[in-house]
Design brief:
Length: about 100
């Protein structure tokens, strides 16, 4: 199942707070192992979500038919507009530097 980026960010924030408390010593000793495990899981989930997002961005123009059916039409049209905009103006931006 796909992990939404906003969920991943909020989980990462919570885990960062727990990690900070753990590092500062404000957590009871028996809770430390649970928090450390939660932090590791959040980092793994965050990395996985980031990798999935990169893969989606790289393949947005060449999606398979079954993937296209899962995406809402709005996201497809929005993504195509963004890609069209970038493809036209990004080279101009590079040459202006």
């Amino acid at each position: 199942p796909a992990i939404h980026l906003s969920e991943t960010i909020s989980r990462a924030k919570v885990q960062m707070r727990k990690s900070t408390l753990l590092k500062l010593g404000f957590v009871r000793k028996r809770q430390r192992s649970f928090i450390a495990r939660d932090c590791e899981q959040a980092e793994t989930q965050s990395a996985r979500a980031e990798a999935e997002a990169v893969i989606r961005l790289k393949t947005i123009g060449g999606l398979r038919e079954d993937d296209e059916q899962r995406l809402p039409d709005l996201r497809k049209s929005e993504a195509s507009r963004v890609l069209l905009f970038l493809s036209h103006f990004f080279p101009l931006f590079l040459f202006s530097l």
